[in-house]
From TrEMBL:
GO terms for molecular function: methenyltetrahydrofolate cyclohydrolase activity; methylenetetrahydrofolate dehydrogenase (NADP+) activity. It comes from Metabacillus lacus. Residues 6-120 form the Tetrahydrofolate dehydrogenase/cyclohydrolase catalytic domain. The lineage of its organism: Bacteria, Bacillati, Bacillota, Bacilli, Bacillales. This is Bifunctional protein FolD. It catalyses: (6R)-5,10-methylene-5,6,7,8-tetrahydrofolate + NADP(+) = (6R)-5,10-methenyltetrahydrofolate + NADPH; (6R)-5,10-methenyltetrahydrofolate + H2O = (6R)-10-formyltetrahydrofolate + H(+). GO terms for cellular component: cytosol. The keyword Repeat does not apply.
Length: 288
């Protein structure tokens, strides 16, 4: 029996529809959620991601603006642009598109964004709040993964979740969110020996290593939930995940496709965080 395909596009559409209603309520209070995106250089993948973010923002009713700086822009120029949006009350969320050119220090940029406007959920203060289980902006891809699970009625409680990948953006935070929902979590990575021994134990398998077809059908526990975060471009130009989809769907109980799985959810959760930031701004404004 083939796995049930978790359609990220459909779930993301529902999230955006719910957010549109929230935006209409905010507009009645004279608050239009605003998202400022800053891009340095002309990375084709970054340009593609930004188009998706702009489309989702506009569909939701979020005011979107793009600041496109040249590849040669200095770190100071970028920091000054962030400072401008930190102070600008019409913009509730700030996102600096990664990766950055090598002459710009990513850490300094992330830490310059106000934690109140950090809709990517990367600022150390927001990361710390997430670890402490406090309300904060969750990193968009992990938050999207959790929304995908809940959309299928899948509870992590009591299940063994295996996360392949340990990035600060996906692997580490999604493991923490699963732990918060009472899963038993195992982290694997590029130095893990006998990887398949761990993946075959997973009730929920999160593949976020960035290596095409790392996970084969034989590496999956029958009936497992497989969430494929990988986005790898093949020689023929097609995108594929970290999981061998054709093999895996013969074994898994649920699986996300690439493209059309986690990707749309990442963008939807960015819109979610932006609307959340606008609501917090309104709350603070009315309490002054």
């Amino acid at each position: 029996m083939l796995a049930s395909i978790i359609n990220g596009k459909e779930v993301a559409q529902k999230v955006r529809a719910e957010l549109s209603e929230e935006v209409e309520k905010l507009k009645q209070e004279n608050v239009v959620p605003g998202l400022a995106v800053i891009l340095v250089g002309n990375d084709p993948a970054s340009l593609s991601y930004i188009k998706g973010k702009q489309k989702a923002s506009e569909e939701t009713g979020i005011h979107f603006t793009l600041n496109h700086l040249s590849e040669s822009a200095t770190q100071q120029e970028l920091l000054e642009k962030i400072d401008y949006y930190n102070e600008h009350e019409s913009f509730h969320g700030i996102l600096v598109q990664l990766p950055l050119p090598k002459h710009i220090e990513e850490k300094a940029v992330i830490e310059r964004i106000s934690p109140l406007k950090d809709v990517d959920g990367f600022h150390p203060l927001n990361t710390g709040k997430m670890l402490a289980g406090e309300d904060t902006y969750l990193s968009c891809t992990p938050a999207g993964i959790m929304k995908l699970l809940s959309s299928q009625g899948i509870s992590p409680e009591g299940k063994h979740a295996v996360v392949v990948g340990r990035s600060n953006i996906v692997g580490k935070p999604v493991g923490q969110l699963l732990l918060d929902q009472h899963a038993t979590v195992t982290y694997c990575h590029s130095r893990t020996k006998n990887l398949s021994e761990y993946t075959r134990q997973a009730d929920i398998l999160i593949a976020a290593a960035g290596k095409a077809h790392l996970i084969k059908g034989i590496d999956i526990k029958p009936g497992a939930v497989v969430i494929d975060v990988g986005v790898n471009r093949m020689d023929n130009g097609k995108l594929t995940g970290d999981v061998d989809f054709e093999e895996a769907k013969q074994v898994a109980g649920y699986i996300t496709p690439v493209p059309g799985g986690v990707g749309p959810m990442t963008i939807a959760m960015l819109a979610y965080n932006t609307v959340k930031a606008a609501k917090q701004f309104l709350s603070e404004k009315t309490s002054r």
